[in-house]
Amino acid sequence: MARILVSGGSLGGLMAANALLRAGHDVTVLERSPRSLEGRGAGIVTHENLREALRQCGAVVDETLGVPVASRVVLNAAGEAECRWEHPQVLTSWGRLYALLRAALPAANHRLGAAVAGVEQSETGVRVRLASGESLAADLLVAADGIRSTIRAQLAPAVQPQYAGYIAGGAACATRRACRAARARRCSTTSASDCPKASR
Q: DSSP of 72-105, one letter per residue?
């Protein structure tokens, strides 16, 4: 059994911690935020690989995972279905996955407000220094502390995140009229010929 520290308590860190814990290791997640990360993130489309990974992490995967949908629909500017095709999936959210993984990890294995400030490596293991001044020893440190990783900045300072040019947009409509207007703007450039496996 190894003593393992996981820096970062988002989805990647929680998945790693749960999997390592179930493999018989002594694991502690160190999350820099003083508060739970619940309520963050956006929508996620699930698939069987994700569901299987969640099961292996000890998460409960049942009908509460998300909302099942049977098909895809493209609407025209008038809000009418231009085409539709069968594509069953379960839609969920980042927050729901976080809650499942967090529930699978015992509270004793998770620390909030534990920001990693530095790490020292030796032949026998690692020593992690927290921003509070506390020092922790372990056999292994998993760096899952995100795009602005403190650990990466220390161990590989030349590696920097670079914007790849991707953007994503999302919206929630408060009224039916707002929904219709947003739908008209979004669908005005979409034609039935853009729909794979479409039936009109």
A: EEEE-TTS-EEEEEEEEEEEEEHHHHHHHHHHHS
Helices first, then strands: H and E counts in the chain: 5, 10
Element (H, E) at 55: helix 48-56
pLDDT tens-digit series, residues 20-69: 999 999 999 999 999 999 878 788 999 999 999 999 999 999 999 999 99
The pLDDT value recorded for residue 42 is 81
**Whole-number Cα distances in Å, 30 to 8, 136, 158:** 6, 11, 25
Domain-located, residue 71: yes
CATH number of the structural domain spanning residue 66: 3.50.50.60
The residue assigned the tokens 């895809």 is 72
Q: Per the structure block, which two tokens stand in for 24?
A: 């018989």
Tell me the two tokens of residue 46: 């699930």
In a domain, 53, yes or no: yes
Describe the chain by its helix, strand, coil percentages, rounded to 5: 30, 30, 40
C-alpha span between 180 and 133 (Å, rounded): 55
Distance CA 12, CA 168 (A): 21
